[in-house]
């Protein structure tokens, strides 16, 4: 199997939300797809350890916020790299509850879909939710949806190990590794966990010694 064939699959970027006892939960996902329109159905793949996935299972409700290019990187870092098990992700952002207490962002989205879980399909590491949309809204004509490619190529964002789109390292069956980058100050070797080294932001620093990205060199 040529693992790199997966690189050409295209996606959007979404904040998937739900609620527990009236409190909002949510995480970033790229795996929302439309299945049909009569009835209107979406699907989303959620990692088994996700707090948001557990809330969707217990409440039977989910909201899909469609991120726009105006959504800041800080939002994706909070919702895509931290779990609601450890932190209140909604404390510093502007959001409003729907009639069903599901969180809708006030900024950085093109629209949203309120959904009921119609079916769940369990896999060893993921749950596939089939969602029936019962309410939706489109917000203005000015916002451009954020695609997964835009997030990776333009915003230079990485993908955590928990996400289905994460690329396995070569020794675990992933695509052939590119060049190996190491810190010329402390010899730390970048492990690829935040995406390709070339896509890390210019202000990224060595996680071991704090040296700037420019101090990294290719291991020969
Ligand atoms: C770009 C991007 C795409 C992601 N896509 C998914 C996805 O489709 N499914 C998923 O379960 N997690 C995905 N994640 C990872 C979750 O957002 C992450 O594991 C989050 O910390 C889960 O939070 P929770 O435990 O509060 O639900 C993605 C993260 C990023 C940054």
Give the key terms:
220 residues; mainly beta; binds flavin mononucleotide; Rubrerythrin, domain 2; Pnp Oxidase, Chain A; globular; two-stranded antiparallel sheet; 2 domains
Strand % is: 25-35%
**Largest sheet strand order:** 2-1-5-8-9-4-3
The number of helical elements comes to 3
**Quick one: CATH class of the largest domain?**
Mainly Beta
- The overall average pLDDT, rounded, is 90
Structure at a glance:
This protein has 220 residues and is mostly beta strands. It has 3 helices and 11 strands.
Account of the 3D structure:
The protein is mostly beta strands. The protein folds into 2 domains: 3-154, Electron Transport, Fmn-binding Protein, Chain A (Pnp Oxidase, Chain A, Roll); 178-220, Single Sheet (Rubrerythrin, domain 2), CATH 2.20.28.10. Helices cover 11% and strands 33% of the residues. It has helices at 51-59, 73-81, 148-154, and strands spanning 14-20, 23-29, 33-37, 40-47, 61-67, 95-97, 103-105, 109-122, 126-138, 181-183, 216-218. It has a 7-stranded antiparallel β-sheet. A hairpin with a 2-residue loop joins strand 3 (33-37) and strand 4 (40-47). The longest helix has 9 residues, at 51-59. The radius of gyration is 18 Å and the shape is globular. The structure holds flavin mononucleotide. Residues 27-31, 45-47, 50-52, 76, 80-85, 151, 159-160, 162-165 line the site of flavin mononucleotide.
């Amino acid at each position: 199997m040529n693992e790199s064939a997966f690189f050409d699959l295209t996606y959007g970027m979404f904040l998937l939300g739900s609620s527990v006892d009236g409190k909002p939960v949510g995480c970033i996902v790229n795996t929302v797809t439309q299945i049909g329109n009569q009835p209107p159905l979406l699907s989303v793949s959620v990692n088994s350890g996700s707090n948001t996935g557990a809330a969707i299972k217990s409440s039977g409700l989910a909201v899909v916020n469609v991120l726009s290019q105006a959504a800041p990187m800080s939002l994706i870092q909070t919702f895509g790299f931290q779990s609601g098990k450890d932190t209140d992700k909604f404390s510093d952002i502007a959001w409003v509850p729907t009639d069903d207490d599901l969180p809708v962002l006030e900024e950085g989205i093109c629209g949203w879909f309120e959904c009921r879980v119609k079916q769940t399909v369990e896999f060893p590491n993921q749950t596939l939710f089939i969602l029936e949309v019962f309410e939706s809204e489109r917000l203005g004509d000015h916002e451009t949806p954020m695609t997964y490619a835009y997030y990776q190529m333009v915003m230079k964002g990485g993908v955590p190990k928990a996400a289905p789109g994460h690329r396995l390292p070569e020794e675990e069956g992933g695509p052939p590794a590119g060049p190996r980058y190491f810190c010329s100050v402390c010899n730390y070797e970048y492990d690829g966990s935040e995406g390709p080294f070339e896509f890390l932001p210019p202000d990224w620093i060595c996680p071991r010694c704090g040296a700037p990205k420019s101090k990294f060199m290719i291991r020969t």
